[in-house]
Amino acid sequence: MPDPAELYDAILTGNAKKAEEVTKAALEANVNPSELLSKYMIPAMDEVGKRFECNEYFVPELLIAARAMKTSLQLLTPKLAAAGAKATGRVVIGTVQGDLHDIGKNLVASMLEGGGFEVVDLGVDVPAEKFIEAAQGKDGSIVALSALLTTTMTQMRNVIQALEAAGLREKTRVIIGGAPITQQYADEIGADGYSDNASAAVGLARKLVGTA
Ligand code: B12
Description:
Largest sheet: 5 strands, parallel
Order of helices and strands: HHHHEHEHEHEHEH
CATH topology of the largest domain: Rossmann fold
Oligomer: single chain
Number of strands: 5
Bound molecules: cobalamin
CATH architecture of the largest domain: 3-Layer(aba) Sandwich
Number of helices: 9
Distance between the termini: 44 Å
């Protein structure tokens, strides 16, 4: 059986095939899925994030690491749910209405999953009502909005206003990102946080958990 510690390297180097192989073998050998996640997978994604922040890794490395992480997570998720492992928090993520760009959003979603969050991915071109529906009844959720177009970033304000109108604003945190987004814009529309990359999005979400 491969050593479960090999999972760390497989994710760090973006080797999805190896990650799948080690995860399958570890689960067959009854290694605790929460242990796989907390000892090898999350630390590997944390390291990916650090390397990205100091310009050792770039977007392609992030994407392949995220893909390897996703491959393992897909195998692990049913076992984790069965074991009742508690997620760090819940994030509802989507690209706003009118916008079809999803590479950055997917990366943020994968990194958040890697960071232990339960992620509900609503996809692209998501109208405000869909975000509301997904946050309703789930107090403490973080709503994460992505936009890549200057013409669609204005939808972010609509989502915040719709949360207010639905009486959910106090119970929900809103984080935003995407190429045209800035901290100044986040402040202007009353979002709770902004980050310009997927790795920092995890730190941001961790900071906001429990503040809603
Ligand atoms: C790939 C791409 C496309 C692909 C998208 C494929 C896909 N599945 O996503 C296709 C070809 C479909 C496309 C279409 C269009 N595109 Co385009 N596209 C791009 C391009 C080249 C790269 C975007 C990308 O994937 N970057 C890589 C990812 C990893 O980076 P990212 O998205 O910024 O995400 C990171 C951060 O921003 C942050 N982040 C992102 N989301 C979130 C969310 C949260 C909550 C947080 C915390 C952080 C966060 O973390 C991410 C990871 O680190 C950009 C150019 C650019 N440099 O941005 C143009 C660009 C965004 N597109 C542009 C345009 C104009 C269009 C079109 C209108 C073109 C046309 N005339 O049809 C259409 C619009 C379609 C639509 N309705 O959405 C313009 C936008 C101009 C503007 N200022 O509005 C750009 C800037 C190109 C340009 N320079 O003109 N596009």
